[in-house]
């Protein structure tokens, strides 16, 4: 079995004549936790959706466990998607379903477990994400944002995915609840041999949960011929990255961007 779980080769994504991703070559190893950072609009979410086959690249190939998603038939792709878990930014729970039903949803859709097994898995996952069993009977509207995120994580884990993608897992949470989510991401990795991709703006999350960080840069602001991934390395090397744009991003300094914004607005007023 190869160490590589995901491979992107020359992945390019164009929307309405705008190139969002250009020639992305990345491979993600089994068990890695990769944080994807970069300023708003640089294509982090599009990249994440591409690697789990939610969107098809305009050009290039994404392979999962040695097989190109592009070459798969629809039933094969559906089968492969069961090996992915998604934790969406807003938890994306079904409001009309109880928490129990929300967590059980993927397993029921796939009809691969008896009712007693479903019951046991849901209760175990509730406890793993630190929620009391009474929550099972409640509805999403009765839960705080942090609790909903934990339910979203439990639901993503129910099919025991090999790859889990987190879209902005801590957005909208207070610092304490953000750290609870970070700890859960770490705990999930300790418990299961899962590979994780975490799209985040939160540098604390990137440093804490990831063993590798990819920083994307908006394609339109790259110099000709520059690769779109400005940084690919360990979180501890971010602070002293060679590229000034990476250092400015991780320190939260507007730097060159401030000058660019002033230039953009003065050219607009011409
Ligand atoms: N389905 C789509 N159709 C057209 N344009 C799209 C589509 N999906 C994304 N885009 C565009 O692609 C660009 C990158 O979007 P993406 O959501 O990946 O950015 P991001 O880096 O995740 O930003 P943020 O941090 O703000 O979430 C944006 O300009 C967005 O409008």
Automatic annotation (TrEMBL):
State which residue ranges cross the membrane. none
Q: Where does the ABC transporter domain lie?
A: 6-243
* SUPFAM superfamilies in the cross-refs: P-loop containing nucleoside triphosphate hydrolases
**Keywords in UniProt for this one?**
ATP-binding, Nucleotide-binding, Transport
Show the GO MF annotations. ATP binding; ATP hydrolysis activity
User: What PANTHER family does the database record attribute to this sequence?
Assistant: INTERMEMBRANE PHOSPHOLIPID TRANSPORT SYSTEM ATP-BINDING PROTEIN MLAF (PTHR43023:SF6), PROTEIN TRIGALACTOSYLDIACYLGLYCEROL 3, CHLOROPLASTIC (PTHR43023)
Instruction: Report what the protein is called.
Output: Putative ABC transporter ATP-binding protein
Q: Which organism is it from?
A: Novipirellula aureliae
């Amino acid at each position: 079995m190869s160490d590589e779980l995901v491979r992107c080769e020359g992945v390019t994504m164009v929307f309405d004549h705008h190139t969002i991703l250009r020639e992305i070559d990345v491979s993600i190893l089994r068990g890695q936790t990769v944080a994807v950072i970069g300023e708003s609009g640089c294509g982090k979410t599009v990249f994440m959706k591409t690697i789990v086959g939610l969107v098809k690249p305009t050009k290039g190939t994404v392979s999962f466990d040695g097989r190109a998603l592009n070459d798969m038939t629809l039933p094969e792709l559906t089968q492969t998607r069961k090996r992915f878990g998604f934790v969406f930014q807003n938890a994306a729970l079904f409001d009309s379903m109880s928490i129990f039903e929300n967590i059980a949803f993927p397993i029921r859709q796939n009809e691969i477990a008896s009712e007693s097994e479903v019951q046991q898995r849901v209760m175990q996952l509730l406890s793993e994400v630190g929620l009391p069993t009474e929550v099972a009977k409640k509805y999403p509207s009765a839960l705080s944002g942090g609790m909903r995120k934990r339910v979203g994580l439990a639901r993503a884990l129910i099919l025991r995915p090999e790859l889990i993608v987190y879209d902005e897992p801590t957005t909208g949470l207070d610092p304490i609840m953000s750290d609870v989510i970070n700890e859960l991401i770490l705990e999930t990795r300790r418990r299961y041999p899962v590979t994780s991709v975490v799209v985040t703006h939160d540098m604390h999350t990137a440093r804490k949960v990831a063993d590798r960080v990819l920083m994307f840069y908006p394609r339109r602001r790259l110099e000709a011929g520059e690769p779109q991934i400005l940084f690919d390395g360990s979180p501890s090397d971010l602070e002293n990255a060679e590229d000034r744009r990476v250092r400015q991003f991780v320190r939260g300094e507007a730097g060159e961007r401030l000058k660019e914004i002033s230039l953009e607005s003065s050219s607009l007023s011409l």
